[in-house]
Design goal:
Elements (H helix, E strand, L loop, with lengths): L2 E4 L8 H15 L4 E5 L10 E3 L3 H7 L8 E5 L3 H14 L3 E4 L11 H10 L5 E2 L4 H9 L22 H5 L3 H8 L4 E5 L5 E2 L2 E2 L3 H12 L6 E5 L6 H13 L6 E4 L5 H5 L4 E4 L8 H8 L4 E4 L9 E3 L4 H13 L1 H9 L6 H19 L1
Parallel strand pairs: 1-2, 1-4, 2-3, 4-5, 5-6, 7-10, 7-12, 10-11, 12-13, 13-14
Antiparallel strand pairs: 8-9
Helix pairs in contact: 2-3, 3-4, 8-12
């Protein structure tokens, strides 16, 4: 059994790229040959990582290659799904798609519908990260037997090295040491959904200003390794200044040891106005960090919910958690986090055995 992982590989750091990195590590640890075909656009010198410029073009090129490796596509775009469907139909390749958080809308547009129409009879196998995404895929015509029965979230526990939790740049270390409590949030890049700040950066700034009234030494760290929209970012920086929280709110706009920040945090916040199954949220829960998230979508067990796009409710819930911090930490001690890489490996083996029986 050989696996071709198609997806972004860090850096840049985001939920899907972290998932691909950790899945590769776990497959290699279990002796499964694995190559990552990385379409992030930046060259990596790591063994087993091959840079490709365009995933759809690469997939079409596979029509002219003979190989028995299983393609596991992490992430989704309509064009990639169309190319995957052609590859599965013409070359009879084993193809698995884990779409990640693409299904933000319950009413996907015509591009999505066309792609899923072509995938309907291709034999592509889908892994759903949530019941919501599974229901949407089935509603788009995918046969239930071609969607994995078991929901498999994207989060895979990290293999923590000493530097991952100890090494921080001096400026960040100084900020964390001189503030308390520390609240952390993150985003891959500035994005918008329904003309609103997808990751709720504006909510985090507003909440930080409100919390400073009762917690004057509060520190809010927002990790944003890829800015994207500089106009909006500059607007948020001006807002930080206007609210007089320049000394309390820190943007980190370059890759850093995120786990070193997270494990020093008192609270994690996921203020998205829609979402897939957030890797960042599950990671915070894994490290037993009391975590708050909007009620925009179903959230994992152990999450404290606040009303979507409501800074006042976010602030109130943060105060509640801080006032009862030991209680919320203790609740998370009993929370079991499964290793989803093992579940994915079982899917590979089942599909491999199924193909052998039909040959």
């Amino acid at each position: 059994m050989k696996i071709a992982l198609l997806g972004p590989y860090p850096p840049p750091y985001g939920g899907i790229s972290i998932h691909v990195q950790r899945l590769k590590e776990n497959l290699e640890k279990r002796g499964v040959p694995c190559t990552v075909y990385d379409y992030s656009g930046t060259y990596k010198s790591e063994n087993g990582v091959v840079m490709i410029k365009n995933k759809a073009t690469w997939l079409l090129s596979q029509l002219f290659h003979n190989t028995d490796s299983t393609i596991h596509c992490c992430g989704y775009s309509p064009m990639a799904l169309i190319a995957l469907s052609l590859l599965a139909t013409i070359k009879k390749r084993r193809i698995i798609i884990a779409p990640g958080g693409f299904l933000f809308s319950d009413r996907p547009g015509i591009g999505h519908r066309l792609a899923f129409l072509l995938a309907k009879h291709s034999g592509i196998y889908f892994i759903a990260e949530s019941f919501r995404s599974k229901d949407i895929m089935v509603s788009l015509g995918i046969k239930p037997e071609n969607v994995n029965g078991e929901i498999i979230p994207c989060f895979i526990p990290p293999r923590v090295r000493a530097d991952d939790v100890t090494k921080l740049p001096r400026e960040i270390q100084s900020f964390v040491n001189s503030h308390r409590p520390i609240i952390t949030a993150n985003a891959f890049r500035i994005s918008f959904y329904n003309n609103e700040d997808l990751y709720g950066i504006d909510l985090c700034i507003d909440s930080c200003a409100k919390l400073k009234q009762t917690h004057p030494d509060i520190g809010f760290v927002f990790c944003l390794p890829t800015i994207g929209d500089y106009d909006y970012f500059n607007e948020m920086m001006r807002w930080v200044k206007e609210k007089n929280i320049e000394g309390n709110f820190l943007f980190i706009t370059e890759p850093c040891q995120y786990l070193a920040i997270l494990t020093r945090s008192d609270v994690f916040v996921r203020a998205t106005n829609t979402d897939g199954d957030s890797v960042s949220l599950r990671e915070a829960l894994y490290f037993k960090i009391p975590s708050l998230a909007s009620d925009a979508v179903p959230r994992p067990a152990g999450t404290v919910l606040f009303k979507n796009r409501n800074a006042d409710d976010l602030t109130s819930k943060v105060k509640q958690v801080l006032a009862n911090h030991v209680f919320y930490k203790d609740k998370l001690k009993a929370l079991k986090i499964e290793d989803n890489s093992e579940k994915i490996l079982r899917v590979y083996r089942r599909l491999e055995n199924s193909k052998r029986r039909t040959q």
